[in-house]
């Protein structure tokens, strides 16, 4: 009985020794490989993981997105999305007038009016497609898309006018877009929100930063005009035009660098400042309502107009969770059962409802492409008809560029900004109005100057001195209005009235003749 056991033991020992001997070299090889590749694979792995994290943040939507609807349902959403789509009928009318009618001042006036009305719904469709596309990406990439496509209409009109060497129209339209956003759009937002709220709050830090950026861009616009005023009499027109172009090209490159830094600041490093839940934002207050029945029942009216029972306050239930508790941010009590102002009715970050898209991705991209092409063609007809419109002398090119053309590109933004301001989303309204002004001042203007440099067009930052002064004063007025972080209906009315004064003034303003000679192709 002992011999089989000894044989079995010997066999087991032999098997273990062979396995250890066979595994030992492989273990050494594994160790050697690990030690030899650790220096390379470690940083490479970390870099790839960082790259993957950045891509995930850019492409991951903040809220879950539902299933895209069928094709025909998406087409229906495009057609019935806004009442402005009624104006789409003017697209074929403007095209037919351009090709069928002969060249005359009366016909150019008709083409201008029809093209003007046709571009308004196209701008709305462009904003609609941008929102649908932004829904499917992360907040950072969505903000970049909105910043890029937000002023697409103004950019297209400016490029076409630049190619046709309508430099006075280009400059007036860019200045007019900033004035329209700062005075008209922002004033309408303040006034519309003030009809429902006694005071509306927004982030002071962000607004002050935006005001600083606008002032910097306005200074860059004023410097060539100051150069022309101070040294224009000493330098002949030919060398002076070259010097002003050189100054404008350098300033344009610096402004583009500032805009890139601003995008990094807004979308990456300090994006929390632009969050609606930032504690820097003041709470909005509704109008106080005097309710005798509520007073008889022992209710008290809070500072924001909400009715709060006295027994809830005296029972100490609010003592442990004050409204200014750091853990809850700027939380406020329900206001008269308004679901928009009740924090409890707002969806939490843990249980957010999914967003339902109205179009598929392919239909969204197709809509963006088609609308951009139609806008480019219609804008070309619009710019072609400006000379015939202004030939009679009843209306000037300055008024067309400063007042009329900005309405075309900003009509959709007007509706969006006013709608969200009534819903107590004034931060979003400021992002539309002031953010669009910053993009025009820091991106569109220097981009057009750089593009003119490439195309050989004498497009400079030598704007009309009167236009530059009006822009500077408007930026100062807006800075004083928003510096307290609150708004009311009176401030909105002041801004709108100031815009009307500017419009009336430029109706009679003839423009500067010597600047037209310097900006001649």
TrEMBL record:
GO terms for biological process: intracellular calcium ion homeostasis. Residues 298-314 have a biased composition (Polar residues). GO terms for molecular function: calcium:proton antiporter activity. It comes from the Eukaryota. It is found in: Endomembrane system. Residues 315-329 have a biased composition (Low complexity). It is a multi-pass membrane protein. The chain crosses the membrane at residues 77-97, 109-129, 141-162, 174-193, 244-265, 361-383, 395-412, 432-455, 462-482, 488-509. Keywords: Ion transport, Membrane, Transmembrane, Transmembrane helix, Transport. GO terms for cellular component: endomembrane system; fungal-type vacuole membrane. InterPro entries: CaH_exchang, NaCa_Exmemb, NCX_ion-bd_dom_sf. This is Calcium/proton exchanger. Residues 1-52, 292-356 are annotated as: Disordered. Belongs to the Ca(2+):cation antiporter (CaCA) (TC 2.A.19) family.
